[in-house]
Design a protein that fits this description.
mainly alpha; 0% strand
Length: 181
C-alpha cells in the first residue's frame, strides 16, 4: 500500500493525459482521419508507457505489463501502417478498449483487497469495455461521431483514473480506510 500511495501521481498523470486527449477531440471535431489515427496512436503509446512504468516501478503488477505491452503494440501498428489503421480504426480502438478495460477490472478486484470500497479503477474498466462494444455496434458512425465518442471516452476514463489517484493519495495519508491482507 505504501508504494501505491507514494506513486499515486502516476495514475494522476495518466488521468490528466486522458482528459487532455479527450478535450483535443472536442476542440478539433473534424480532424482528418490521419490526424485522428495519429492522436489515437500517441494516446495509446503514452498510456502504455505509463502502465509499463507502473509495473516496472513495483506499483502495478503483471496486468499492467500486459496492458502496457498491448497499448504500445497498438500504437506501433497505428504508426507503422496508418492507412491500415484508418481503415480498421473501429476494430483497433474497440479491441484496445475492451482488453484494457478487462485488465482494469481485474486490477480493481485486486485493489479492493488493499483499499475498502474502491470503485474508480473498476468503473474506468467498465467504461472501456462499454466503449469497445459501442464501437463494434456502431461501425457506420462518421468521423465527427467517432471524434466525440473518443473524446468522451478519454475524458471519462481520465477522470476515473484521476479519482483513483486522489483516493490512493488520501488513503496513503490516513491509515483508517486501509486494510491489508
Amino acid at each position: 500500500m505504501e508504494l501505491l500511495g507514494r506513486y499515486w501521481w502516476v495514475l494522476a498523470v495518466r488521468g490528466v493525459v486522458g482528459i487532455l486527449f479527450g478535450i483535443l477531440f472536442f476542440v478539433w471535431p473534424l480532424p482528418s482521419l490521419a490526424t485522428l489515427v495519429l492522436l489515437f496512436g500517441v494516446w495509446a503509446l503514452l498510456d502504455g508507457c505509463a502502465a509499463l512504468a507502473s509495473a516496472i516501478g513495483g506499483r502495478g503488477g503483471a496486468y499492467y505489463v500486459v496492458e502496457g505491452i498491448f497499448d504500445i503494440a497498438i500504437a506501433v501498428l497505428t504508426f507503422w501502417r496508418p492507412i491500415l489503421a484508418a481503415v480498421t480504426l473501429y476494430s483497433l480502438i474497440a479491441a484496445w478498449a475492451v482488453v484494457t478495460g478487462i485488465f482494469r477490472i481485474i486490477g480493481a478486484v485486486r485493489l479492493r483487497h488493499v483499499i475498502d470500497d474502491e470503485i474508480w479503477l473498476g468503473l474506468s474498466g467498465v467504461t472501456s469495455v462499454i466503449f469497445g462494444v459501442l464501437m463494434v455496434a456502431l461501425p457506420a458512425a462518421g468521423v465527427l461521431a467517432l471524434s466525440w465518442l473518443i473524446g468522451s471516452f478519454a475524458i471519462v476514463v481520465g477522470a476515473l483514473l484521476l479519482g483513483l489517484s486522489l483516493r490512493l493519495r488520501r488513503a496513503a495519508h490516513t491509515a483508517a480506510p486501509l486494510r491489508v491482507h
